What we know:
- This protein has 591 residues and is α+β, with helices and mostly antiparallel strands.
- Among the domains are: 2-134, Glutaredoxin (3-Layer(aba) Sandwich); 507-588, Glutaredoxin (3-Layer(aba) Sandwich).
- The chain has helices at residues 2-20, 32-41, 55-62, 68-77, 89-94, 122-134, 158-170, 188-199, 203-216, 245-262, 265-281, 304-307, 311-317, 328-345, 348-365, 384-401, 404-420, 446-463, 466-479, 482-485, 493-503, 518-528, 577-584, and strands at residues 44-50, 78-84, 102-106, 112-117, 230-231, 239-240, 243-244, 292-293, 322-323, 422-423, 426-429, 507-512, 535-540, 561-566, 569-570.
- The strands form five sheets. The protein has a four-stranded mixed beta sheet.
- α8 runs antiparallel to α9.
- The longest helix is centred in the first third of the chain and has 19 residues, at 2-20.
- The radius of gyration is 25 Å and the shape is globular.
Amino acid sequence: MNLRRLAVLASVFASCLAASGAESVSWQPWSDAAFARARAEHKYVLLDLEAVWCHWCHVMDATTYRDPAVAALIGGRYVAIRVDQDSRPDLANRYEDYGWPATVIYGPDGTEIVKKRGYIDPPGMAGLLRAVIADPSPVDYGDNPPEPPAAGPSALDAGGRAALTGQWLGGYDARAGGWGFVHKYLDWDCVELAMRDAALGDAAAAGRARDTLRLERRLLDPVFGGVYQYSAGGDWDEPHFEKIMQMQAENLRIASMAWAQFGDPDDRKTARLIHGYLRKFLTSPDGAFFTSQDADLASGEPGAAYYALDAAGRWRMGAPRIDTHVYARENGWAIAALASLAAATGDAAARGEAVAAARWIVAHRGLPGGGFRHDERDPAGPYLADTLEMGRAFLALHQVTADPYWLRLATGAAGFIGAHFSRRGVPGFATADTTGSAFPAPRPEFDENVAVARFARALLEETGRDEYRVMAANALRWLVAPAVTGNRGFAVAGLLLAEDEARTDPLHVAIIGRKDDPVARSLFETALRAPTGHKLIEWWDPRTEPAPRGEDIYPRFPRAAAFVCSNGTCSSPIFTAKALAARLRPAAAPY
């Protein structure tokens, strides 16, 4: 399989090289030098922010940027920059509402003039380029909200929580299913929030979650495995065929959680199909993970006919290109997802794959002070997402292995985040390093700050260290500001999850017993399958380990015991996995 894949990749790479020779536009990488040239030559800067897996990016490259009129306009009055958005999280976060492809035009001084979303045909692009030359006045898109006050609230009041819950519920498509009315995909935060409500007995929330999980199966590739990015047209039957890591990882994580909560074998099958795809297509020879697989077999050509073939038919034609960059951020997503699969199913192989990838990233992407690079060499950065997602991955590994090594790495990552991405005197964490100078100036991104808040809160539960309470509050203070949430529609589920976790204790199960005791292990694995994502599972061996958070509060027994704890009190000891499972299942009893 690996040899076959390498042959396909070599073929596609050769075709890409051949095509690049025919380009009409002379593209440059993003750099200070490109903007310096624009200033010196009194030219505008055109940014083509693309994705290597993106069908319409390929189409635009093959049509618009090879059009003689467009090429002449760019060559005469513009400096042209092309960036793969996966390679630059700072630029991708800044322009995520405009892509992919995203087209941004700057003045010679770096001022943003115009931003456009998606494919632009040759006449449209030529008209846009001429219009900027004729009138370079910047367009105000209203997408730079005012900064929240440093002393603002770090929690929602009851009215604010109800308003955001209404926004979230208002985004559910009762006709076609799922959240959103144009693009159809599994919005992982929305489904996780619905699953949390379902575990509390909300039957309507259970229905929304399970319907979305069922419909998302239409976007699974039954031949190679993996999940397509989304379906267009307001239904689930027009897939865009690219397979990007975040979609694989988050679908795998949610399907694993759903299997633990609902016990539907189709959710377990979904998880297996995605896991198999990661193994076969996106795992590097070193055990780390690649970034994505292209939508198209031939650049810019529709892929429906190819994806309708069986395995033999596809392999006769080849396979779409795989982006073999190994980014820390993408590996963090994959590791956390595999840890979730291991927790839900007891899959030791998945746990081993997660550990192998994490060790590779530590060895090859680590930075002094606990942080991580994005790639082998970064043109800018460091970026928040790499250290953040690896920190969350380490915490997930700590939960499924009970190995304190991973907790030490997670706290190291948190320290790096505080040192490099907090904004002095202003709430929120910026998407790139704030300790140096960078253009454009880094600013916060919503989903990253949600992840910081959840990561910090989980570390608080693990360690009892108040610095993580402060970190979570800093992220939440930016997130809850009306200027930040007001235009997000239903995409506030992550904030509702983070805010709920900040207000409530997790399900806490402590296992007291030897690490070589099979009964203790069975208790531990049963606790990992508890049907909630908001949980703290600890396994403490008093013979060899210090007590968690220095709290030696558990009685000793001659055999392994489990305790279910909350609000400073713990249950009576539980000695069997069957009894522990019975104690943990009531949260999911309606299903």
